[in-house]
Design brief:
Largest sheet: 6 strands, parallel
Shape: globular
Structural class: alpha/beta
Strand content: 25-35%
CATH architecture of the largest domain: 3-Layer(aba) Sandwich
Low-confidence stretches: none
Oligomer: single chain
Distance between the termini: 19 Å
Helix content: 25-40%
Strand order of the largest sheet: 2-1-5-6-7-8
CATH class of the largest domain: Alpha Beta
Radius of gyration: 20 Å
């Protein structure tokens, strides 16, 4: 039978892109709040004996987790054959260690919640740093979709003579993959983080930027401080205006505007999180995943 794609509220655009590519049926569901703040959940499409695909972008997760969990439980209760989650952005991956006494390692707790709710998970470039793979913390089959091919295609089409720059060691996996596909040089800087908004980045090798357009690539742009510091280094030495590319457009507060004000020529992101900066589509890769 044809799979049913259900959108968690806020993920309708991602769900429609996926449904179109899969040739699946669009599912009808209702999620609303009672006057006391509790949730009402109803699935109006027949799901008994069918595969159900829940699409939920997990940025700003506090408002999305309960609707996702309740829809998944409802689909199971109504007899769905399998229930899966397509999360273009997977949150809670950055708290992967106990950095200070008493902290919770929320990446493992969230993995436990998701693993108990669905049968499988597909996501785009999760923030794997201290975890080598999702299999270390998720107890269900997981598939990681890579954004590098789509980013490389965009860079080839829009940036003449690029040099790829990763603002920190964690970004090397994305920068190296994009640079290889583009056939461009790249370099990776070193970052020291002292707080959410207090970071320093080593200066890039400016000689390697001469005659090139710098393209900064990272997986998550949240506060933007790492990229802003890198842009300041480049613009302070007369290098061409850099282009900032992020896989996930988290953008806390005014981060997008602050990047442009710092001297970035453009800020471009993939459409894992809906944002005006989205220029790179990963829907085909998600559907294949």
């Amino acid at each position: 039978m044809t799979s049913v794609v259900l959108s968690v509220p806020g993920s309708e655009a991602s769900a429609e892109r996926l449904r179109t590519r899969l040739g699946a049926e669009v599912g009808a569901a209702m999620v609303r709040h009672f006057p006391d703040g509790e949730l009402y959940v109803r699935i109006d499409s027949p799901v008994a004996g069918r595969d159900v695909v829940l699409v939920c972008g997990l940025d700003r997760p506090a408002d999305k987790i309960l609707p996702f969990l309740f829809l998944a439980a409802t689909a199971r209760d109504l007899g769905a054959r399998r229930v899966g989650l397509v999360a273009p952005y997977l949150s809670f991956m950055r708290q992967d260690s106990r950095f200070h006494p008493g902290e919770g390692i929320t990446s493992t707790y969230f993995a436990g919640l998701v693993s108990g709710a669905v049968d499988w998970l597909v996501t785009v470039d999760p923030h794997l740093h201290r975890w080598s793979s999702l299999a270390e913390i998720y107890k269900i089959p997981t598939e990681v979709v890579r954004a590098a091919p789509a980013i490389a295609d965009w860079v080839k089409q829009h940036v003449p003579s690029p040099v790829l720059i990763g603002p920190d060691a964690e970004s090397e996996q994305w920068v190296a993959a994009v640079a290889e596909r583009v056939g461009a040089p790249y370099q990776v800087l070193e970052k020291t983080r002292r707080g959410d908004r207090d970071v320093s980045v080593t200066p890039p090798d400016l000689a390697r930027c001469d005659g090139h357009t710098p393209v900064l690539v990272d997986d998550i742009i949240s506060t933007g401080r790492t990229m802003i510091e890198t842009v300041h280094h480049l613009r302070g030495h007369g290098v061409r205006e850099p282009i900032c590319v992020g896989v996930h457009a988290v953008f806390a507060e005014r981060a997008h505007d602050e990047l442009l004000a710092a001297g970035a020529a453009r800020v471009v992101t993939c459409n894992t999180i809906e944002h005006p900066s989205n220029r790179i589509c990963v829907a085909d890769a998600l559907a294949e995943g």
